[in-house]
Specification:
This protein is 76% helix and 0% strand. The protein is mostly helical. The chain has one domain.
């Protein structure tokens, strides 16, 4: 992706969403890594993409790296990942997220 588009969150996030839907997780991860600034929508696209590709552990891994305030959509995506994974880690994260919700 050209540099001028890579620095545009809307374009980069849309590309991540598309690539994840096509199952091209590696390319989506590459764009994500190259982005200089990430927002909650970008993180949400990655988490949702991992869930859509049944990579639930990766979804929770990236969720744990989010250092900005979550929105309702991200909460829903994380709960979905936890429900699909259904292990001790997922239960712990799900309960922690539920306790943090406003």
């Amino acid at each position: 992706m050209p540099e001028n588009y890579r620095n545009n969150n809307i374009t980069s996030t849309s590309a991540i969403d598309m690539l994840m839907k096509f199952g091209d997780v590696e390319s989506a991860e590459r764009i994500f890594r190259l982005m200089k600034t990430k927002n909650i929508i970008t993180y949400g696209a990655m988490v949702k993409g991992y869930v859509g590709n049944e990579m639930f552990e990766k979804a929770l891994n990236i969720f744990e790296k989010i250092d900005i305030e979550l929105d309702d959509v991200t909460y829903t995506i994380v709960f979905n990942a936890c429900a699909k994974l259904c292990n001790d880690r997922a239960m712990k994260i799900g309960k922690e997220v539920l306790a943090k919700m406003p």
